[in-house]
Structure prediction request, 1214 residues.
Amino acid sequence: MTTTLPLFWHLSSSSKKDRLDASVKLVGALEQFQSQFTPNTTAASQTNAAAASDDSEDEDAIATTSSRKSDELGLLNSQDVAYSIRRLIRGLASPRESSRLGFAVALTELLSRIDTVTCDQIVNLILSSSKTQGSMTGQEERDVLFARLFGFMSVIRSGLLVRAAPLATSASSKTESSSPASFKQVVEELVALGEKKSWLRESAWFTIGLAIDALHGSEVAWKEESVDFVFDQLFVSITIWSPEKIALTLKLQELYPARDWSKLVAPTFKNPKLLSSSNLQTLSRILKESSIDEEGHKDPSKAPSGTWKPQLHFAWDVILEQLLPGPNNTKKQPKGSLQEFFKVVVDESLFSTTSSPQRKYWGFQVFQNALKRVTDETMPMLFTRNFMRSWINHLSNKDRYLHKIAQQTVTEVQAFVKDKPQLGFSLILELTGVNGSQQFDKLTRTKTVESILASMTSEGIQNYVNHLFSQFNEFDETWIADQVVALIRNGGIPKSDECIQTVLEWLIVYGLFVVKKKSSKSSITVLRQVPNPPISEEIRDVCKSRLLTCLGELSGQTAVVQSDDKTTKASAIASDGELWVAKVVVTVKALEEDSKHVTPANESEEEEKELLMKAHEQAAKLKEVLEEQREPARGAELLLLSLILLQYCGEGQDSDAVESCIEAISRMPFWPSKSKKSKKKGKEKEKQKAKEAEGEGEEEIEPIDLLADVIIGFLEASTSYLRTIANQAFGYLAALVKESTVDLLVSQLERRTPAELAENDEEDEDVEMEDEEEEEEEEDEDDDDEEAEAAGSGGEDEEGDESSSDESFGEIDLGDDDEDEEIDPELRNKIEEALRVHGIKPATEEDDEEEDEELMDDDQMMAIDAQLAQVFQARANEKKGAKNANAQREATHFKNRVLDLVDIFLKKQPTNPLTPRFIVPLVEVIAGSGQDEMQLRDKAKGILRSRVSKAKEHPSAVDADEVAEILQALHGRAKKAHGSDIMEILGTSSVYLAKILVQAGKESAVEEAYRNSLQDFLTRKNSTFNTAFFKFFFQRQPAQAWKLRSSILELAAQAINSYRQAQSLQLLELLINQLRSMENQVEAVAEFMPSLREALLDLANKACSDQSKLTAPQLKELLKLALASARQTKRLAPDTVSDVWQPDEWSMLKQNLEQSSRFSSSTGLHKMCNQMVQLTSQPQGKGENKKSPTKRKRKADAEPEAKGKAKTKKVKAS
Prediction:
């Protein structure tokens, strides 16, 4: 017993693993004990004889039956086994932790392993140990009833209830392990248990179902007798229909189909097949757990299950198994119609408008369970109307009662699609179909449809796109366009190039063309049908806009291109290496040539057609560029094709950008036929002549500058497509950027006042108006002669014209925009108030009495003019302020986009000699940004930190003089800067430039810049420099900083105050500590250290004599510098340490400190002086460990070695 008792404790553990381990150990030990046990057959026969001779049926005999049968356990089983069985059965009623689970598992496993017990014995033990008494509390009664339930379940699961094998040893003639009496007793007790407590009914009937399965699979001789008993109990004794009875009926119909089911289920069900259509209404009422009697009426006297519980009834699993057999039961045919069942029993019952939230909660669980079983054909049947309505409603708001279960359903749907991606397309059709909503994600505020699309295969996405286009005449066209844009935008959705091409073709045809006739054989699938009704202008504009949006998204995505054995990544291209914009332009050109089936929605003028034709030819020629120059050529091609597409879409402002792009590309170094320059025609030739006439000798604009100007023009647009194209094109062209290009970009970052921005906008508007006037004048040239004749013959008309012009000259011009503006009530009220003050009634007020009009004199008129002038001036100021604010906001956004170009250049070209030219403008952006430009400032900081401060590569072939000027400019900016952030940026950027200058052999410029800054820092009181600015340089460029040692020492003596002196000493200490990372500095150290010693001693002695205001902490920093310097001297030139540092002078300093009124109590300073003396006066011995300066300090004392050892032992002993 000592070996098994400890194992019972772990059976109650809350850990499942511990419980299983304890069960395995306990059962294994008991099997070993039983194998070593020899049954006492003589005692067993005597016990059986006594039982046979006892024929009385009195109460004493019945009471002793259980105890006698329990005693029989010890006759055929070992003592440990008998004790364990009794204890395990008693432990089922324990309420401690998880004891009921652990004891039930152990009992089940033990009964399945041993063959020396009978079912009758175990059942009697369970019944005797789980008797209820009137004195029990509610909790005690509950524990006892659960013990009986778990005991019967252990008997059933162990197989003992229907075990056909006889007992291994028995002294009597009865050798059966199980009997029909014990089976009937178990079923009766379970039925009674369910009737006694409604909350145990489901579990009790579930256990009966286990007994039925066990009986059906057994080979006992009394099987038919027991089956008849079960039918009698369930269908004759019990007339109330409940979900439990439904579940067992379906199970029995499957096991015993030959029974007379029409009689058994009547009159409640009309059809013996419970899942038939005629029974669904009755079935729905029962499954809502409303008990129904045999007449089909609700029986309120029978409570279904007590309080509502969130767990779904096991009957639903049985029903779903019948309707949806699942993938493992391929031979089993479904019984009943899933569509009708879900419509009646689930949708119209659990999800009805009058259904309670509890019933809907069950409905969501039924849906989740069914979703795991459905196939391609059966899945659409689950998404019924009421279910979809409830699902969308409860997903839309977190405050909804069933929001969590609705979210859980979304998770189940997403997991379902990941497991079966081929069903994703069908699922999306249901979510966005008739019962769902096209705006499902928007209404539910989730990404359900988006996540489903991401889990689908590329073939499923293609099918979804084809479905959308096939429903073009039925669905909202704008919604379809938005869906395909969402597909393109989401990089996580698997899309083939063919699918993307299909989307682009659809947007091209319906955005730029009018389909006249369908083309069944066309490679463009959208031409295979004619839209009916025709596409409206509004939808056409939507398609054009979505086309540009898709191209913008595709241009920003990176694709993998495989060519030969190489795999490269590039942006704005398809997997075949061709630009997406090129594919679109080729499609547009092919559709232009197909005049039989389509016509352009907007016809172009002849000049525009010639220009586009020329652009097409140049774009085709760019494909002939050599491979080594392919990247910049691709950027130019992307830019040119984007301009062509803008002309087709009607988004191009004018043709100047296209002409500039064509001219610039023809002068690019990668142009295939650069040597064969074609003659310029038309406007280009006229412009060139005009430029030569204006001023000879002017330098020709660089072609890259022309392209950069076009790119900057793209940034000014409000569309993301143009901004994306600008960034990608500039990234390809970054290698060709020149100084003038950098100046062009930098000029865009210059800060301008709101008034200047507004003035520039007005100038642009004036230029546009002048252009329009010139065009009008050109159009009216033919009528000039007629107007001249009319002017010569009609003098009176001239006078009339003059008078009318004089009258119009005095009128107030409020501008064209004001004509369409709504009347401002506030402005009207102010004007009316000004008129009332002077006794004038506004025109809006009616005067019933007719009075003579009173005329005002000049003074009154002037007073009214002054009042009205104030009102109009205030109104003008409001508009001007709003206009300035808008201009400033737009300028900030534009600079943000320009910074993107700068970031692209610095990322693509880290070794370009032009990189340093961007540093000062970026610093100016940081320093000059206001509170409303925080985003601009942060972006500039991020560029400098990531591309400059943390740069791993530096430009080599640079103009050293120019870089030196930039370094001086940064240090000059640091003299005016305020704030730690800007000083950090300036400090790290200066280090970056210093590295470049050192590589270029311009160390003197670095030393001069930092020397002047150090002078300003130490000698000027209001200097904005801080030590962090110099620490960046000292830590990252120690070799160059070491050259400033003498300057720092000299400036420390000239410092404006003691605080700056202390900071200079900190910088020197940092510099001294960097000597370990430098080589060949022995002579420099030997030369510098004496002057350092003299300066430090001079400062310290002045502090002792009150000639200096150094404080004790500052003096401590001075001594720390001295100790660090002495150690470095000893490391590099150990023979000269005493001569250089003069220990006697440091002893004198100690005496001065002790005698000083300010430092006499600073014992820490005295000890540091002692350390200095010990460090510098120690003779070089043979056995000194040079690698341990701590030991050298301790041994420097003049005391003998033995004394030192004695002190050490004393410390250890204490």
